[in-house]
C-alpha cells in the first residue's frame, strides 16, 4: 500500500462522561475507499466529524498529507475551512433559497476564488455528477437523487485531499441507492480521491470499499478488505454484524499433526493448518461459518467436516427455501434451492468447508 495520506492515531472523544471514540487508530492510502461500518451510536459519525474539524478530540493526533490537523496535547486544532477536506452530510444540507450553481459554488466563494475560476470549477463539478444544464435551477425543484448529486458536486468542487461521506445514500429508495452506489464508486476511481465513508449498511460497505473498519462502542473491532472481514471475522460481533452466520459450540481437539472441533450434535470439523494456534486441547470454542458456505445433504454416512441436524421448519422465500435446523440444542437457518426439499423432522447432514470456518473462544 502507498504511504498513507491520512493518519488517525489513538484519537479519543468524550461528550461529558460518555466515551464516544475510544482510542481509534487507522490510516487511509491515496485513492483508497475506506469505510467505517457499524450500528447507530457506535461513534462512526463522530469520527467523521473529528476528521472534518467539526469536533475537537480530547486526545490523539490527526494528520493529513503530513500536516497535523489536530493534536490537543500540542494545542493544534486547524479549523474546518483550512483542512482541504470535503464533506457530504446525510441530510445533504442543500440551501433551498439558492440555485444549484450557488450551492456548489459556496465553498469556492468562502475561499475567495476568482469569478472565472468559480464558474469553470462549478461547471466541471456539475458535469462530473451528471447535472449539466441544471445550474440555474432552484434547489427545491430537484429530486432526491439530484439533490444528492448537488451535495456531492459541492464536496468535490475545490478538489479536496480527502472526501468524507456520512451515509449519503440512506435517504434514497432502493433502486436509486443501487444506481448511485455504482456512480459514486466510478467517480471516486475517476478522480482518484481518498474517501472515508460512514454507513450502517453492510451490503453498501462490501460493494464500495477497498477496506472496511467495523466499529463497535467507539472501538475498531476489525479492519480489512471486504473479503477478510466477511469471511474471516475476528470477533463474534463482526461475524454477526456482516450478514448471517452459523455458530456452534464445540471442543478443540488436537493430536500430533492435526486439530479439529468436536461439535455438540454429532460431528467434527477439521481446522486448517495454523488456524488453531491460540487454542489448547479440550478448550471450549465456537465455530463460525456463513450459511452459503455450508452444504445441506440428505442423511447418510457421516463424512469429514459434517454435522448431523434435524429439520424443524421450512420457510418458502420465493426464489429459495430457508430451513430451520436443530443442531446440538441450537436452531440454525440455512438457505437452499427449491430443488433441495426436505420434510420437517428429516435428519440431514451439514457439510462445512474448513477454508471458510472461523474458530472463536466460547
Highest CATH level, the class of the largest domain:
Alpha Beta
Number of domains: 2
Q: Give the helix level as a range of percent.
A: 10-25%
How would the global form be characterised?
Answer: elongated
What this model shows, in words?
It is a single chain. This protein has eight helices and 21 strands. It has helices at 44-52, 100-110, 115-128, 144-156, 174-191, 202-208, 226-231, 236-241, and strands at 6-15, 18-28, 33-37, 59-64, 67-71, 76-77, 85-88, 162-166, 194-199, 211-216, 219-224, 246-254, 259-263, 267-270, 284-289, 294-298, 306-316, 321-327, 330-336, 347-352, 358-361. The chain has a six-stranded mixed β-sheet with strand order 7-8-9-3-10-11, sandwiched between helices. It has a five-stranded antiparallel β-sheet with strand order 2-1-4-5-6, with helices on one face. The longest helix has 18 residues, at 174-191.
Write the layout of secondary structure elements.
Layout: E1 6-15, E2 18-28, E3 33-37, H1 44-52, E4 59-64, E5 67-71, E6 76-77, E7 85-88, H2 100-110, H3 115-128, H4 144-156, E8 162-166, H5 174-191, E9 194-199, H6 202-208, E10 211-216, E11 219-224, H7 226-231, H8 236-241, E12 246-254, E13 259-263, E14 267-270, E15 284-289, E16 294-298, E17 306-316, E18 321-327, E19 330-336, E20 347-352, E21 358-361
Parallel strand pairs: 3-9, 3-10, 7-8, 8-9
Antiparallel strand pairs: 1-2, 1-4, 4-5, 5-6, 10-11, 12-13, 12-15, 13-14, 15-21, 16-20, 17-18, 17-20, 18-19
Helix pairs in contact: 2-3, 2-4, 3-4
Amino acid at each position: 500500500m502507498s504511504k498513507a495520506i491520512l493518519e488517525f492515531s489513538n484519537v479519543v472523544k468524550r461528550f461529558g462522561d460518555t466515551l464516544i471514540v475510544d482510542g481509534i487508530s487507522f490510516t487511509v492510502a491515496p485513492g483508497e475507499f475506506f469505510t467505517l461500518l457499524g450500528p447507530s451510536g457506535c461513534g462512526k459519525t463522530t469520527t467523521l466529524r473529528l476528521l472534518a474539524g467539526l469536533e475537537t478530540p480530547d486526545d490523539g493526533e490527526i494528520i493529513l498529507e503530513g500536516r497535523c490537523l489536530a493534536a490537543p496535547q500540542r494545542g493544534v486544532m486547524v479549523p474546518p475551512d483550512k483542512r482541504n477536506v470535503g464533506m457530504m452530510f446525510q441530510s445533504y444540507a442543500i440551501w433551498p433559497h439558492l440555485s444549484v450553481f450557488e450551492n456548489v459554488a459556496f465553498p469556492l466563494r468562502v475561499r475567495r476564488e476568482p469569478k472565472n475560476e468559480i464558474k469553470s470549477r462549478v461547471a466541471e463539478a456539475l458535469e462530473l455528477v451528471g447535472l449539466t444544464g441544471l445550474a440555474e435551477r432552484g434547489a427545491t425543484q430537484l429530486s432526491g437523487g439530484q439533490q444528492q448529486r448537488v451535495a456531492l458536486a459541492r464536496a468535490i468542487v475545490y478538489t479536496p485531499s480527502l472526501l468524507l461521506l456520512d451515509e449519503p445514500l440512506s435517504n434514497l429508495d432502493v433502486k436509486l441507492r443501487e444506481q448511485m452506489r455504482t456512480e459514486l464508486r466510478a467517480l471516486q476511481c475517476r478522480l482518484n480521491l481518498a474517501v472515508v465513508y460512514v454507513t450502517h449498511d453492510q451490503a453498501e460497505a462490501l460493494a464500495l470499499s477497498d477496506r472496511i473498519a467495523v466499529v463497535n462502542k467507539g472501538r475498531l473491532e476489525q479492519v480489512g478488505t471486504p473479503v477478510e472481514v466477511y469471511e474471516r471475522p475476528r470477533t463474534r460481533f463482526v461475524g454477526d454484524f456482516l450478514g448471517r452466520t452459523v455458530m456452534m459450540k464445540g471442543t478443540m481437539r488436537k493430536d500430533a499433526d492435526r486439530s479439529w472441533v468436536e461439535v455438540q450434535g454429532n460431528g467434527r470439523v477439521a481446522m486448517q493448518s495454523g488456524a488453531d494456534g491460540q487454542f489448547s486441547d479440550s478448550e471450549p470454542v465456537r465455530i463460525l461459518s456463513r450459511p452459503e458456505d455450508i452444504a445441506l445433504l440428505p442423511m447418510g454416512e457421516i463424512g469429514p467436516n459434517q454435522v448431523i441436524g434435524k429439520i424443524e421448519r421450512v420457510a418458502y422465500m420465493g426464489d429459495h427455501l430457508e430451513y430451520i435446523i436443530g443442531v446440538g440444542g441450537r436452531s440454525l437457518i440455512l438457505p437452499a434451492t427449491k430443488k433441495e426439499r426436505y420434510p420437517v423432522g428429516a435428519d440431514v447432514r451439514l457439510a462445512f468447508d474448513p477454508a471458510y470456518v472461523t474458530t472463536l473462544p466460547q
